[in-house]
Request: fold
Amino acid sequence: MAWHLGIIARVTTTVVGLSVTLLLTSCDGDRPENNPANSSVHPAPLKIAAIERQDPSLSIGVNLPPIYDWALTPVMVDLVHQARRFGSPETPWDEAAELADDGWPIGDFGVFLATRQAGSSHFPGTYTVRFRGKATVTTVASRASIGTSSFDPVENTTTVLVTVPEDGNQLALAFTDTGPGIKHLQIIRPGYDPATPPLFTREFLEHIAPFRTVRVMDWLRSNNNPVRSWDERATPEYPRYASPRGMPWEYVTELAIVSNKDLWINIPAHADDGYVRELAGMLKRELPATTRLYLEYSNEVWNAQFEQHAQNRALAIDAVSSGPDARLDHDGSGNPDVWAIRRIAQRGKEISDLFREVFGDAAMMTRIRPVFATQVVNPYLTRVALDYIAAQFGPPHHYFFAIAGAPYFNLGARQIEAGLGTDDIVAALAGSIDNLATVNRFADNHDIARRYALPFLAYEGGSDTFGPGSLAAKADASADPRMEGLCRRYLQTWFDSGGGLFMWFHAGAGRWDHPYGSWELTTDIADNDTAKLRCLHSFLNPPAKP
Reply:
């Protein structure tokens, strides 16, 4: 989520903000006896955060790039994992193939694997297509050629070579004469042994190597995720992960293991308690004991653009209507928007409790780090939520490691203006940084954080150029050497304010010349010398003090 989502969110939460302001005048959390700052409970999060602020490797993390056929970051070695839903042989993009329960096509089909890849260093080369069974493989709407083909009758496996030329832009394949259908299709990128391919590409792992913490919100398809029970989740047996169910947790843990990363994970909004317990158990079994886990309930549940917002509000209303034991209206509040904000914190608290059951008390707020994330420009929401937790359950720092927001810098009033030049874009971004602390209410957010003995983190942030208008200038500004200085001043403003771990949105490569924002750190995964990367690396590897 970024500025383009924030516009609508700020409008939709204006009423909430006014209601909250009225509510605060009578909130139980304002009473000294209910203020967790007066509690004798040891506020571990603040002490841990103060220690970790001395470690540059823990200052900046990244949100991982989404996995789609159009993504320019080569995350996975097998292209099938990033493919669209299987389609017909003639038009694979129609996603109309009949599928078996295991997700593989029944009979002939097509698959749309990659698009908008022109000029990407990682795309050209010879791919190895392997699958169980027999089929005729042809290209569809692709500048690619079919090479040698072989069949192993003992293994019942077909192997076909497909070469994408230097000017290739997309890749789609048709599989015909399949009889009842084929299984276990793999399309392995150039440069990897098709017999024993790794899960993640070398380029991707090298790109994220400098960052200790990664947030997997987009990998998990946290927004609008439909999964409720553990049995409904994506598993490694399912062929593709550019789907509403997202990436299997098994592969998230594998990334943490092979790359030595801490994880910032998002629990699906619909996930029931059984799901959370199973997830916690799997993470405890599979991850190294040194892996830090930041836990977030879904993503931006306050944001009305996402299904989880309406779902949470409806659940809050149901809870209040369920009987006299409901807590969301404990103070007599009759505002469903207030109930909804309180429920976000309550569900976060419940997730924290479930992880505590699995990992034990000693791991909480040290290894296991539940985060209450909310709208940075509207700290009233945070205060209402945490006041509720304090009044009904006790000190929030028993349940949460930190609060978090998303303090982007952008073009302000010129965000969608046409006719701007590169200098205009740079100047507008600089002006946004000048006002960063004010616009993003840093002082108010830190006041709430200190009140409840919690650090203040950034679950997202970075340079925001979203919107139509001046697209070429926005792209040029994102690549301009001056962006390094802007980025450095931006991050320094964040850290000077007392901010903790900052999760840049997002890593990877992408196009910067379109209206959807130049979020990525580079335009090609092979280019590791962009202004944004130089900036982030300078914070992660500061010069030694004399």
The longest strand covers residues 125-132. Residues 2-42 have pLDDT under 50 and may be disordered.
